Amino acid sequence: MRNTLRPAAFDPRQEMRSRQVEIHYNLDEDSPTVDIHSHSHYEIYLFCEGDLERYVVGARSYTLQRGDLLLIPPMVLHHPVFQEGARRYQRYVLWCARDYLSALIERDPDLGAAQRLCRERGEYLLRFSSPAVSRLLERELQSMWAESQGSGLCRETALEMDCMRFLVQLNRSAATDTVADSAIDAGSPLLEQVIAYIHENYGQPITLQETARRFYVSPSTVEHLFTQKLGWSFYRYVTKRRIVEAQAQIAAGAPVKTVCRNCGYSDYSNFYKAFTRETGVSPSQYRSLEQSRAPLA
User: Fold this and answer.
1) Bridge partners (DSSP) listed for residue 116
2) Which helix (H) or strand (E) holds 70?
3) 80 DSSP β-pair partners
4) Kindly report the CA angle at 243 between 238 and 244, in degrees rounded to 5?
5) Which of 114, 197, 261, 294 is most buried, judging by how many CB atoms fall within 10 Å of its CB?
6) Which domains does the chain have, with CATH numbers?
7) Angle CA(24)–CA(46)–CA(132) in degrees, nearest 5?
8) Following DSSP, what letter does each residue of 81-131 receive, concatenated?
9) Based on the number of CB atoms within 10 Å of its own CB, is 269 exposed (0-12), middle (13-18) or buried (19 or more)?
10) Is the torsion defined by CA of 249, 254, 259, 261 positive or negative?
11) What pTM, to 2 d.p., does this model score?
């Protein structure tokens, strides 16, 4: 283990460069910023330390502890919410291509045990009761990071082997430990409650005024929360949620006009413009691109 290896500077890209597996180890020490995002691959995120208020995945929100893991499927919005004046943020992020992980699970269904457990519980968080388990999984990711920074022969194959070893340990641990319940509830911060409302109601008309009335605050309070904490307007977040859902439905084979209605758009031209602006391609072009990908697992 090369413990002298340092974390890398954060790279804001959200698409994989490698075909199968990619590991990131990042430490931000000066006003960290991570945009709201989703991607077409699976992400396994391990939190080390940082000035976070919460981490939001889909309609769920978590106060993270060291060693917590988030299992984030393709096309699910996620983002950290930082404390005021945040300075430090350290984490490991493992990306697995959708077709690669799906093929592994098809060959050995036990490799999807942790994923299935989270899905059954409606959670993305794995928090292990034993700190030793978290340390073991972190060491596995450290080993992958060291391998990724080297230049030895068979580097890609070695990374895939490290990834399989990590997945085996992860699923064995999840089979004997508890998935933490950390749902958004009435006691959660207002921002997370509004985000949950958007995620659950993206297919219905959503306005800033009606949302503010629902939570007994002013529209300016809601808008200020989004711009202050996320750097996005309320309506930009609503649009992002709808378009990410549209991408998932198109990838699953739903007719584009049905997707338009399902995602809260009564007018196709508005849907077309929003989709193209967010993704860089039209809905039909996106469908063509997705035909070359494996189906969502």
Assistant:
1) none
2) strand 69-72
3) 55
4) 100
5) 114
6) 21-176 (2.60.120.280), 190-290 (1.10.10.60)
7) 125
8) EEPTT---EEEEEEEE-HHHHHHHHHH-GGGGHHHHHHHHHT--EE--S-H
9) exposed
10) negative
11) 0.87
How do residues 76-132 score in pLDDT, each as one tens digit? 999 998 988 888 999 999 999 999 999 999 999 999 999 998 988 888 999 988 888
Interatomic CA distance for residues 176 and 126, integer angstroms: 12
- Local structure of 268: helix, strand or coil: helix
Alpha-carbon distance 8 to 29, whole Å?
11
Residue for token digits 């005021």? 84
Q: Is the pLDDT of residue 41 over 50?
A: yes
Q: What is the CA radius of gyration of the chain?
A: 20
DSSP sequence for 134-173: HHHHHHHHHHHHHHHH---TTHHHHHHHHHHHHHHHHHHH
Given strand 60-62, what is the order of strands in its sheet? Answer: 60-62, 52-57, 78-82
